[in-house]
Amino acid sequence: MTGPQQNGHGAAPTGPASGPKVSRTVLAHLTDARACLADAAQAGNPADRYIHAHLAALRSAAAILAARPQPIDGRRRRLRSAWELLPEVQPELSQWAAYFAVSAKKRAAAEAGLVHLVSVHDAEELVAEATAFVTIIESTLGVTTQETLPMAG
Asked: Where is this region: Disordered (predicted)?
């Protein structure tokens, strides 16, 4: 699987730039995303790296969804994934949403114990793509970033 990477780097949100203010909830999601990327970097096997990287992307999607809530009409709606909602809120992220929707199935399999389905290459690719995605979300929201250093364990 090849993702829509756009030149990312590892960093942690430090707060809004001179642009629009973002809520504490949005910043918390971005901080969680960076923590998941750090966990992916330290994970001992490809499946764990893959899981943490995907969760980082999911936390970033949650940040953009929290920053740009959509009005809800009066009808009850079925639950939809972040990957289904993201293109509605931020259409230019549609390719990213499609990529991470596909990778969600492999993440679920890895979480269910089917770790043999995740190769080293799969994990490395997803870590790179998730890192790029988190950075794009931070940039889109006007949140500055700071390099995240791995914690000694």
From this structure: 1-22
pLDDT tens digits for range 5-56: 543 334 444 444 434 577 899 999 999 999 999 999 999 999 999 999 999 9
* Residue whose tokens read 């793509």: 129
Q: Other C-beta atoms within 10 Å of 108: how many? A: 12
Mark 24-49 as b/e (b = at least 16 C-beta within 10 Å): eebbebbbbbbbbbbbbbebeebbbb
pTM exceeds cut of 0.85: no
| Nearest residue to 64 via CA among 29, 36, 108, 20 | 29
